[in-house]
């Protein structure tokens, strides 16, 4: 392991000749974010996981086009056209018939809806919900953490108390208790319920998800606010809000990026899990709901269950490993 | 020690009371028509949100009184018998009274007695495996730090623990008990009736829960063991000529267990308050499944009971963890 300083000394001694272009590049300063990004690019696991995540994201964003590309849709069909009404199993595609390009993932037993279309919509719900929840919880966590760490005193005590309170309250039980109440109160008709159930789930995930970031940011701010650049900014009369946003926030980029990349998979998994328990989104396709419905068909039609299971597992594992790689890349202590 | 315990128990009771108040408030004001399910059941579904019958039900259940009166009645029921009126019938509820289930009007405490042994059995088996597998693998990995086996173990636990738990449980249940019969059908049989069937019926659940949960114990105990093995007192012990076994188990492991005990206390508390996914997937009638079903049909007394149970478990778990600390690590002083 050579220290960067050693490299510098060597270049300094040979200064009789003007440094070559390559040598100048190697000693050029790089920002921590740049260093992390370069490390990330050289990490094969991170690259593979990033491609997988990008693939899922593309499916989610371009869901309508992907569906029309395969010529499938989630529209309800007259079940008898696709389903054998006696066995309730599909007349086309798996499990009893071969692969068909009309329905690459087969059709659902009972209802006859196309599995691929449902899968794509499930991917969309999952990523959309996880993204909204991540953005909101990060925003709340960062704001509260900044304020608590910078202002200190009674404000810090109050915010820290609530952080600890929410941390000690179990997420699942909170979700179970709050979700039905919100849905009952505000979801008065089907259209409203569709929107309300989505946002009540986001609300629950955010309410039980902001504490980690808040704690992390608070801790960082506590040490940052004593640094010279912050004191200098204060001395020349920069207003507090500007110090927070322009001086302190850029220094928090690394922990925030890491916490975002590790909370996304958590939310994807939580959404599917809650849908599986029957308290997830209503009126939208969700992988968790498909898993719940498909469990009873396992013996005769395993593919029906495996499709959403593989979807959840691959997406969550890829996101998690990518998050770990990002954390390692930003951590100067890890060596590869 | 004694002063510490008294202090912790008082603080713990405060938290339990606060949580019970929060839960009570949530379910007092939360549902628009808390008596609707009860009223529908009695009147063959002919009970709307505006019907006078519903008003009567809610009146008798006390939903029109002030919340503090009702909370007082509920709390008093924990120590004294009270009567609860549902519709036209009066029910006696002996202490400790947690109310009547809105679903079948049986005493919540009676149902609790049926469900708790299932959850307790799950928790005992799983927590045993957490420690047995997690700590021993972690210690072995720490002693062979940097070898291929260690690296493979670390990366495989990372990948394994990234998969959502319910998928692991669901697929193992389907593959191991339905597709192939490697494991017998999962069921709960009381250990006092037949200890062998108790073990064989729950073995798969224990393994799934234990193996999945032990990954984090492996990581924690490996990390803290690596740290402990590089401490001065471990070097001293080695220099004294103590056998490697004694050094690892008596000197290093004791202090390395401190972070493990912390998460263990919390995990056991959560296991005791019901492993929702496990119980739903394996169809075991425990506290977790009971709680989920109760929230879906808005069986409020049951939800209150399960939440309270959870709070009690978490608080007691934390106090126990603090006590265990002082035994494990002589440097910890309780004050």
General description of the model:
The complex is a heterodimer of chains A (336) and B (335). Chain A is mainly alpha-helical. Chain A has one domain: MetI-like (MetI-like fold), CATH 1.10.3720. Chain A is built from 16 helices and no strands. In chain A, helix 14 (253-277) runs antiparallel to helix 16. Chain A is globular and about 80 Å long. Chain B has 335 residues and is mainly α. Chain B folds into 2 domains: 2-107, no CATH class; 109-334, Orthogonal Bundle (MetI-like fold). In chain B, 71% of the residues lie in helices and 3% in strands. Chain B is built from 13 helices and 2 strands; from the N terminus they run H-H-H-H-E-E-H-H-H-H-H-H-H-H-H. In chain B, helix 1 runs antiparallel to helix 13, helix 9 packs antiparallel against helix 10 (244-272) and helix 12 (287-296) runs antiparallel to helix 13 (300-328). Chain B is elongated, with a radius of gyration of 25 Å. Chain B: Its main location: membrane.
